[in-house]
Structure formats: C-alpha cells, structure tokens
Structure to design on (703 residues):
C-alpha cells in the first residue's frame, strides 16, 4: 500500500492554470467585446424578424419561431451595452491595450501553431480517404515535433533522427490504440 | 419510506455484478487521471466518456460518468498538493495547506487526508441525495409550461454566478449558449432557424461536439500555449489515509460536509464554492487560525471535504429540477439526456428507480476513490511525467473521436473545432464556458416552455406571474438577478443586518 518507493522530483512540462486569471481583460478589450456583442445581438434580432410568421397556418403571433431568438438578440444587445458602459466608466477610452510581453508573444505563436495543426487534422486529414489511424499518426507526430521545436529547452529543440523516430512511434501507437479502443471495443465508427 | 428503502436496496444490488463494478472502477480511474492532469477537468472527463459509453446500457454508462466525476474532483487534489496547481477549479482551496504540507515533507499525509475526507464527505452527501431528491421532485411534479419557463430562466440567471467571475460575461455566455440551442429545427412547427440553407445545421448544434470543443479543445489550446515548465514535488511519506486525523477533525468533516452539500444544492454555486466556504468556516472556528495557509490539517480537510460533498449536493437539483448548478453537473445532465433519461420533475414519474440508481452509483464512486486512494496514488502520479507536447495532441485525438462518435458526422468535428477555438479566445478574455453549456442545455426548454405557455394562455403573460409556483420562481429569479445590482445588494445587506440586530435585541443580547 504505502510501500511504493518515493517518486523523485521530476522536471515537468505541465500547463499552468494561470490562463484564466491572466485573461482578465482590460477595459479597452471589454469595450471592443461589447461592440462585437451589440452588433451580433442586432444581427440576431434582424434575422429573427425576417423569420416566417407562419400566418398561413393561423398560429398565435406570440408563438412564432423567431420570438425566442429575437428576445435573446435583445438580451445580447442589453448585456453588451451594459458591458460597454461599464468599460467606458472604467476608462476604456483613456487606457490603451496593454503591451504584448515576450511571454505573451510566445503564447500566441504556440496557439497559432496548435490551431493550424488541429484544423489541418480535422478539415484536411480526416474524412478524405485516409484511414483514421494514418491521419491521426500524422497529426500526433507532427504536433510532437512542432512543439518540441518550440520548446525553451535547447536539447528538445534539436530535431534529430531519434526524436523523429520517437515522435512517429508515439503517433502510431496512440492512434492505433485509440482506433482499437473505439472501433473494436466500443464499436464506434470512426471517420 | 419503506418503498424508497426497498428501491434503494434493489438499486445497490443491481450494480453488484463484476462487470458493472469494473466499469465503475474504470470510470473512476479515467476521472482520476483527468483530475490529476492539470488543465483537464471533471467536465472534460464526463464529456469524453459520454461518447465512449454510447454503446453501454444507460445505467452502466451513467455509473461510469458519475464515477469519473467523483474521481476527477478527488484526483485534482493530487496536483494541488504536489504541484501547487489545482487539478480542477474545486481543488484550488487545497493548494494553500496541501502544498505547504508537501513542502514540509508530508505530501503523503496530505494525500491521505484528502482521501479520508473525500470518501467520508461523499458518503455523507449520498445520504442527502437519497432523502432530498424525492422530496424536491415531488414538489416539482406540479410544474407546467409556465413553471418550466421560469426554471429555465432561473438557470440562465444563475449563469452570472456559475463560475464566480464577472456576472455580465457569465450572462453573455449564457445567452450565446441559448442562441446556439436555437439553431436547427424548432420543436413546435419544425421551422428551421439560423440554418442558412445548410442541411448539416438543420440538425442543430450537437451538445457533445459543443461540450468537447468548449472544454476539450479549449483546454488543449490553453495547455499547449503555455511556455512555462513546472516541477512536481517529492512524495516520500506514506499516502495511506490517516483515520486518526479523520477522528480528530470529525467536526470539521461534518461541518464541511454539510456546507458542501448545501452549497451544491444551490444551482450556480460550484464545487469550488463548497471548498472555499468550508475552508473559511473551518478557519473562523479554528483555535489554530495562524496555521491556515501554512500547512493546516484542519484547512486541508475542510477544503477537500467541502468540494467532494458538493457532488451529491449538485445531483439533487439536476435530478429533481433538471437545473444543473455547475459545469460538470451540466455535462452530466446532458449525458443523461443522451442516454435516454430526462432529468427534471418528470423523472420521478417516468424513471422512479433512477434516483436510487444514482444514489447507488455515487456510493460506488466513493468506494472506488477509496480503493484508488489506498492502492493507486503512486502509480497514477506517473501520468504527470508525460510531457504535454505528447499528451495534448492525444487528448485532441480523443476530442475529435468524441465529437464524431455520437452521430458519425464530420460536421460535428468542425463544430467542435470552431467552438473550441472560439472558447479558447473567449476564456482568455475572461469569459467562462460553463454558462454556455447551461444555455445549450436549457435553451430548448426555455423556447418550448415560453411558446407553449403563450399558446395555453392565448398570448397572455398573466399566468406566468399569477400561478403560485410560477410566482415563487419568478420572485426568486428576479431577486437573484437584482442581487447583481450593487445598490440592491447593499440594501439587502442593510435590511439583513437590521433584522439580525432586532433579533438579538429581542433575545436580550447586546447588539454588536
């Protein structure tokens, strides 16, 4: 039970939970958001008003399909306007957006890479003839190598033959394992 | 009463088969691993497992999901103690004392405290789950379209507080969730809304793809975007639960357990609130307040007990009212719907046994975490050594499979990716995704109830305010909403203080 040997301190590459706390947007950013929400709300109201009133079916005008979406659009306009007013009261017009720090620049680059890889896998690789496990192997392998290349550790950044072989092995093994578990064990059809 | 006990007994017996127990353990294991990994949450564990359990019998599938829910919250304390990073939001309160104990070379003891507190408080919560749910469900049986409308609106109003952040942003996300729920064919006249001629959109935005995107892909992007590396703390002492600690801090366990259950009962107050309120209460009555935040056993016990007992607490409104109070319970409710059980007032009529099944499932989940707490902590911590560059692409693979598996549509993967990317950027700007889930779940109910109510009243709004239960729900909803207005909140505070002063004077005590 408690006989297992001690786990030694290990250097980890684990995500922090500071993303959310860092995300506290500035008043200026909130103002931009508010403008976006108000525009979206207005678009929703307009689209709701354009929906069929189904008069030919003689239905009660208060049960038309556009009723709830229209009310939601109005809600978005109101909440967006309050958000905008609040950011204005907090000095949104006088405060510039905070300058982008070096860490934030790295973060953005990493996100961009992750989004490109995810979209590439979902839109290009999946469902266009490639077997699931092949498409997934390509995605996992490329992801591992790409993020190793962006690592702050100079040893990890060097992509040699061994690193490629290791990434490929992990990619193939994990993809085949997922394929086996879902398609064979849980009988779920995969793309 | 006797019928209830009989139902409960047969529910326990129905799960006593080796395969079912194995599924429960498997669910708890996956949940634990997800909880241990910072960034992956109980919500994601439930969302991913929902797709994996599609082919299972409904009861077994929900057992797996409940075990993973309990397991993830329990597992989250590991990283709080060893890394000073809460595995899930609910474990944040455990960081202060847990990590301080780890720094003093007592990481194993801290883990033991977390285990004993978690098991005891979950079992305590189960008692309330078994007794309160049927009572509340019987009241809710009197609900009609008007009452359901207020219930749905109440849920959306709660989205301002569901994550305890910015209420305005919470409401906005709630509205976005409700709006997404309007996409596709509406329920009264089969009219297609916001489909723009697309056949794929006519089927609506799938709940699972949206959930997996909002929690899975967004978490993957969050994790991969972080350039900072972390160290895990040494684990050198025994991880066995200290039952002596449990006996010594029995009042903390009881108090925090009750606080956890009752904060769980309040829709919109998440597991993290259970932990923090329990922690604050323990500190307020402790004789060793100065130790809090510096390695207090009392503090850690309170935090862990408070968050775990809120799980059964959360299940009460989910089952009886169909209103989820936290992100994981919202996903769990969605999973129940997918597995053919509609939580809410009609549950006690349509599936009366199900409430007792959930009680049995939650009990099994607490024993599963005890088992893993005794035998599995050290091996499972190895998972923390897997670099995120390897882990996160594999998690995304599971997200893609999860989104696709429900309806075998590639379109659902695109929905997952679109919502995931959007969710990441919104989260970075301070918007939380739990209200969006709440909106998605409650959207069809709100739409259907409002329009059905208007049909029944021939367009009149009066019955929405004059029927007794509607009036109560409307008053609560409007009151909850007004509580976000600072002037109203301070006025309520003043009235509360005046009443308290009056009560003290009436009792002959001196006012403070």
């Amino acid at each position: 039970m408690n006989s297992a040997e001690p786990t030694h301190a290990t250097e980890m590459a684990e995500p922090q939970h500071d993303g959310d706390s860092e995300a506290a947007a500035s008043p200026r950013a909130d103002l931009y958001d508010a403008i976006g929400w108000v525009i979206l709300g207005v678009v929703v109201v307009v689209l709701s008003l354009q929906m069929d009133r189904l008069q030919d079916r003689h239905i009660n005008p208060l049960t038309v399909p556009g009723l709830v979406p229209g009310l939601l659009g109005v809600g978005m306009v109101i909440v967006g306007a309050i958000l905008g007013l609040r950011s204005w009261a907090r000095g949104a017009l006088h405060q510039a957006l905070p300058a982008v720090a070096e860490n934030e620049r790295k973060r953005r680059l990493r996100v961009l890479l992750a989004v490109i890889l995810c979209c590439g896998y979902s839109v290009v690789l999946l469902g266009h003839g490639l077997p699931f496990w092949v498409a997934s192997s390509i995605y996992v392998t490329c992801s591992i190598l790409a993020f190793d290349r962006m690592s702050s550790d100079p040893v990890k950044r060097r992509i040699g033959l061994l690193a490629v072989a290791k990434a490929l092995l992990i990619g193939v093994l994990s993809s085949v394992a997922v394929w086996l578990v879902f398609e064979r064990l849980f009988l779920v059809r995969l793309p | 009463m006797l019928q209830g006990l009989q139902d409960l007994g047969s529910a326990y017996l129905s799960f006593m088969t080796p395969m079912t127990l194995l599924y429960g353990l498997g669910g708890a294991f996956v949940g634990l691993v997800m909880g241990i990994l910072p960034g992956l949450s109980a919500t994601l564990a439930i969302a991913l497992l929902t797709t994996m359990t599609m082919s299972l019998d409904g009861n077994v599938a929900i057992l797996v999901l409940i075990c993973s829910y309990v397991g993830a919250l329990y597992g989250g304390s590991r990283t709080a103690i060893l890394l000073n990073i809460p595995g899930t939001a609910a474990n944040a309160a455990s960081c202060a004392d847990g990590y301080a104990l780890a720094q003093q070379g007592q990481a194993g003891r801290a883990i033991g405290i977390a285990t004993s507190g978690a098991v005891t408080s979950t079992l305590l919560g189960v008692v309330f789950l078994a007794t309160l749910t049927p009572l509340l469900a019987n009241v809710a049986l009197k609900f009609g379209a008007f009452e359901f409308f207020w219930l749905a609106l109440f849920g959306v109003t709660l989205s301002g507080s569901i994550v305890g952040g910015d209420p305005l942003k919470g409401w906005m996300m709630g509205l976005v969730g409700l709006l997404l729920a309007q996409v596709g064919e509406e329920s009264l006249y089969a009219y297609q809304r916001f489909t723009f001629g697309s056949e794929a959109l006519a089927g609506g935005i799938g709940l699972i793809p949206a959930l997996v995107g909002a929690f899975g892909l967004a978490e993957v992007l969050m994790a991969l975007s972080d350039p900072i590396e972390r160290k895990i703390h040494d684990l050198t002492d025994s991880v066995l639960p200290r039952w002596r600690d449990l006996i010594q801090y029995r009042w903390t366990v009881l108090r925090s357990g009750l606080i956890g259950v009752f904060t769980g009962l309040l829709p919109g107050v998440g597991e993290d609130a259970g932990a923090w309120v329990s922690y604050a209460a323990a500190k307020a009555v402790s004789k060793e307040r100065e130790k809090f935040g510096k390695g207090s056993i009392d503090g850690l016990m309170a935090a862990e007990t408070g968050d775990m007992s809120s799980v059964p607490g959360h299940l009460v409104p989910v089952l009886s009212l169909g209103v989820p109070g936290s992100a994981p319970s919202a996903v769990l409710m969605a999973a129940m719907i997918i597995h053919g059980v509609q939580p809410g007032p009609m549950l006690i009529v349509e599936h009366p046994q199900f409430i007792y099944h959930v009680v049995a499932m939650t009990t099994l989940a607490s024993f599963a975490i005890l088992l893993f707490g005794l035998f599995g902590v050290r091996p499972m911590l190895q998972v923390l050594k897997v670099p995120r560059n390897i882990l996160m692409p594999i998690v995304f693979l599971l997200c893609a499979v999860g989104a696709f598996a429900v309806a075998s549509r590639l379109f659902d993967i695109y929905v997952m990716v679109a919502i995931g990317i959007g969710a990441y950027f919104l989260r970075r700007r301070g918007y939380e995704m739990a209200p969006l889930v709440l909106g998605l779940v409650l959207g069809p109910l709100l739409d259907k109830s409002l329009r059905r109510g208007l049909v029944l009243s021939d367009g009149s709004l009066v019955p929405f305010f004059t029927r007794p239960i509607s009036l109560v729900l409307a008053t609560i909803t409007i009151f909850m909403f007004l509580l976000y207005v600072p002037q109203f909140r301070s006025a309520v505070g003043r009235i509360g203080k005046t009443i308290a002063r009056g009560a003290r004077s009436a009792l002959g005590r001196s006012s403070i």
